[in-house]
């Protein structure tokens, strides 16, 4: 039994995880209730962003938009959907990384340009946004929001005086970083993915129409049949003539975000050929191969640790149990008026099952540790239930560097693995053992595709030049 924990954790954060920026959805399907289908598609992508939601629908002559702050069910709680009629639509759910949490930053963004109306929804983060925004301001552009997505819109509009596709092609040369975009005009749906393929994007068929989405689970939800992933550097144009593919840029070294598989994506999604649930199971098996431990049960931190915990249990022969129950109706983070209420926050989200845990030596599997605050609280709850030993296993390597490609991982001063050794972290969370999956063990899961991933948050090897931290938030509205 480990003694008293080191005094290094003072507050509890219900979201002590990296956070994704957003999810995008687009559909071209004349004759269908597109607003309703987009609503359900966004519902399936709600895990990718809970701050705001929006839908834009076009009927051939105009584009209508409705968006607001909150969950999909909160934004579209009345008759808003019935007023959105048309044959092409896009939708967005957002968690802010570039640009503050503010109604004007909610997406889709809708603008009028020389060719008509243009709506855009963006998943990702531009690394040269400060430079681009300055250039646009100096040449007369006016900005309504603080998002890098509006920078993209301005660049597209500037280049697309005569032809929107030409504008997109020229824009892809100028912008750097991560972007999966869905774009709507009065009669077209367009989508494009950056040449590294940082953020996921796929396309499916729905009758004679097409659906694009950040994850395949959204296609399943609306009854679309998965066709393929949008390729890095590719534009898709979808209209009355069907689907046209334009490979604009030769795919550079692929750099798919590996954290999509560890934490962000829904387990039932397939991203760039890999099923998320099976991949997480393999992470658990790899953990068991690297970390030999004597224990009575394996439990997950639900939900993102569940598949890896099952894999660990299968490979180690240690029985799998559900020792922590998750409250699935907690919704967004509520306002916590006092420290005492903050300390109750994790217990509101997760509650231990004493009958499963009492007197046991436990392997607890989670996907990652960012700041360590929540892990410390969970270990304390287990010990209160009579657990004899707690061995914490993480299905990712230590997070030691910030992400600049659309994920909020905090700055490096807040990342516990960047400041402390694994044994110091073990002491901070008061665990008997702590083991991270090695980077080599993680990459080996993907076989021949092991070099197709961005691992910058683990080793600082950034595929694209990054914005200096001092520039971040320079154009914040708040």
Distance between the termini: 47 Å
What name is given to the CATH topology of the largest domain?
Answer: Glutamine Phosphoribosylpyrophosphate, subunit 1, domain 1
Largest sheet: 7 strands, antiparallel
Strand content: 25-35%
User: How many domain units?
Assistant: 2
Strand order of the largest sheet: 4-3-5-2-11-10-12
Counting DSSP E segments of at least 2 residues, the number of strands comes to: 25
**Integer average pLDDT:** 87
What's a quick, concise take on this entry?
This protein is an alpha+beta fold. Helix content is about 30%, strand content about 25%.
What can you see in these coordinates?
The chain has 478 residues and is an alpha+beta fold. It folds into two domains: 19-270, Aminohydrolase, N-terminal nucleophile (Ntn) domain (Glutamine Phosphoribosylpyrophosphate, subunit 1, domain 1, 4-Layer Sandwich); 275-459, Rossmann fold (3-Layer(aba) Sandwich), CATH 3.40.50. The protein is built from 16 helices and 25 strands. A seven-stranded antiparallel sheet has the order 4-3-5-2-11-10-12. Helix 8 crosses helix 9. The radius of gyration is 23 Å and the shape is elongated.
């Amino acid at each position: 039994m480990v003694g008293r924990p080191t005094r290094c954790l003072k507050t509890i954060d219900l979201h002590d995880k990296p956070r994704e920026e957003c999810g995008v959805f687009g559909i071209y399907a004349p004759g269908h209730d597109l607003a309703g289908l987009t609503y359900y598609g966004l519902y399936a992508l709600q895990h990718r962003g809970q701050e705001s939601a929006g839908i834009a629908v076009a009927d051939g002559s105009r584009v209508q938009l409705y968006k607001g702050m909150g969950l999909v069910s909160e934004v579209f709680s009345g008759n808003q959907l019935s007023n959105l009629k048309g044959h092409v639509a896009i939708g967005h759910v957002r968690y802010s990384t570039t640009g503050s949490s503010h109604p004007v930053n909610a997406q889709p963004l809708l603008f009028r340009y020389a060719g008509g109306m243009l709506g855009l929804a963006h998943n990702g983060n531009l690394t040269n946004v400060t430079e681009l925004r300055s250039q646009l301001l100096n040449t007369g552009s006016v900005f309504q929001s603080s998002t890098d997505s509006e920078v993209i819109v301005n660049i597209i509009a500037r280049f697309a005086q005569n032809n929107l596709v030409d504008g997109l092609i020229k824009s892809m040369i100028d912008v750097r970083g991560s972007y999966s975009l869905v774009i709507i005009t009065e009669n077209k749906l367009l989508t494009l993915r950056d040449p590294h393929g940082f953020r996921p994007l796929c396309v499916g068929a729905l009758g004679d129409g097409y659906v694009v989405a950040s994850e395949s689970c959204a296609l399943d939800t609306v009854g679309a049949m998965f066709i393929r992933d949008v390729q890095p550097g590719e534009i898709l144009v979808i209209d009355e003539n069907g689907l046209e593919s334009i490979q604009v840029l030769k795919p550079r070294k692929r750099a798919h975000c590996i954290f999509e598989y560890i934490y962000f994506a829904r387990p039932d999604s397939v991203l760039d050929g890999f099923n998320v649930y099976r991949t997480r199971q393999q992470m658990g098996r790899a953990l068991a191969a690297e970390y030999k431990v004597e224990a009575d049960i394996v439990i997950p931190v639900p939900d993102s640790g569940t598949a890896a915990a099952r894999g660990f249990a299968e490979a180690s022969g240690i029985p799998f149990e559900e020792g922590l129950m998750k409250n699935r109706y907690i919704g967004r983070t509520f306002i916590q008026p006092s420290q005492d209420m903050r300390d109750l926050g994790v217990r509101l989200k997760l509650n231990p099952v004493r009958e499963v845990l009492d007197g046991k030596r436990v392997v607890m599997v989670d996907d990652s540790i960012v700041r360590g605050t929540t892990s410390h609280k969970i270990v304390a709850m287990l010990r209160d239930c009579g657990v004899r030993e707690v061995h914490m296993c993480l299905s990712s390597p230590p997070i030691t560097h910030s992400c600049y490609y659309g994920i909020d991982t905090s700055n490096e001063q807040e990342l516990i693995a960047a400041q402390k050794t694994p044994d110091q972290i073990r002491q901070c969370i008061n665990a008997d053992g702590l083991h991270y999956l090695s980077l080599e063990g993680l990459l080996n899961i993907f076989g021949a595709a092991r070099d197709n991933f961005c691992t910058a948050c683990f080793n600082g090897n950034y595929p694209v030049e990054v914005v200096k931290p001092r520039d971040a938030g320079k154009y914040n509205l708040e």
